[in-house]
Write a structure and sequence with these properties.
Elements: H1 4-21, E1 26-29, E2 39-41, E3 44-46, E4 50-53, E5 61-67, H2 75-86, E6 92-97, H3 101-110, E7 117-124, E8 127-135, H4 155-158, H5 165-182, H6 188-203
Parallel strand pairs: 5-6, 6-7
Antiparallel strand pairs: 1-4, 2-3, 4-5, 7-8
Length: 204
C-alpha cells in the first residue's frame, strides 16, 4: 500500500503516459485499485499500469508499462511484477522516480529482469518530466537494409560481334568498285601516247 500522496502522484503519471502513448497505441490503464485490462503471464492474469495494444482490430499486445513510486521500488515488487512483465514477448517499460533510478538498475541486474526501456520522472511544480535512462538493443526498431546495386552487364556482352572474314573481303571489293566508278576517265590523247610508248619499248 502506498501513502495517499504517492498514490495520487502514481495515478497522475499513469494518465500522462496514457496521453503520451496514445499517439501510437491503443492504451488501456489500471490506475489505483482498478483492474480493467489484464495480461496473461503463464496462466495467471496480471494488471500492469498501462497496456499498449495495436490500433487494428486484433488488439495485439505491443507493450506493458509499470509506474513505481519511492515506496514501491524494492526487491519484492521487482521479483513479482517486474519479473512477470519482462517474461512477456511484448517490451516492458519501467518508470521510477529520478531519485530511485540507481536502485531500479541494481534490482534489474541482480534479478536478471530485461526492461526494454527504463525511464526516470521528476515533478517540477505542475509539470512532469520524463527522461529515458536506459534502452535495450532489442527494443530498437531494426534498421532498413541497404538495397543491393543491380549487377552491371559484362564488357563482353556489350561488345559488338566480329564480322565474318568473307563479309569483310566482300565489303572491301565493293568499296574499290565504287571508287573506280567515281575516278574520272583519262583523255583519249593520253591513252594513244601511252600506247605508242609501249610499242617503242617493245621494239627496243
Amino acid at each position: 500500500m502506498r501513502p495517499v500522496r504517492e498514490q495520487l502522484e502514481h495515478d497522475r503519471v499513469i494518465r500522462l503516459l496514457q496521453a503520451k502513448y496514445k499517439r501510437k497505441f491503443e492504451v488501456a490503464i489500471n490506475p489505483g485499485h482498478e483492474q480493467t485490462m489484464p495480461v496473461t503471464v503463464g496462466t495467471s492474469p496480471w494488471y500492469p499500469d498501462l497496456v499498449l495494444q495495436s490500433t487494428d482490430r486484433s488488439r495485439r499486445l505491443l507493450g506493458t508499462v509499470e509506474v513505481e513510486t519511492a515506496e514501491s521500488v524494492n526487491n519484492l515488487e521487482a521479483m513479482s511484477q517486474w519479473a512477470a512483465f519482462s517474461k512477456l514477448r511484448a517490451p516492458f517499460h519501467l518508470y521510477v522516480p529520478a531519485s530511485n533510478i540507481d536502485t531500479a538498475k541494481r534490482l534489474c541486474a541482480d534479478l536478471q529482469i530485461a526492461a526494454a526501456e527504463l525511464w526516470a520522472y521528476n515533478a517540477f511544480g505542475d509539470q512532469m518530466r520524463f527522461t529515458l535512462v536506459q534502452r535495450s538493443a532489442t527494443s530498437r526498431p531494426p534498421e532498413p537494409k541497404p538495397r543491393a546495386a543491380a549487377p552491371r552487364p559484362a564488357a563482353a556482352s556489350r561488345a559488338r560481334p566480329a564480322r565474318p572474314a568473307r563479309q569483310t573481303a566482300a565489303a572491301a571489293n565493293s568499296r574499290r568498285k565504287v571508287a573506280a566508278k567515281k575516278s574520272p576517265a583519262r583523255p583519249a590523247a593520253a591513252q594513244k601516247k601511252d600506247a605508242r610508248t609501249s610499242r617503242t619499248q617493245k621494239r627496243k
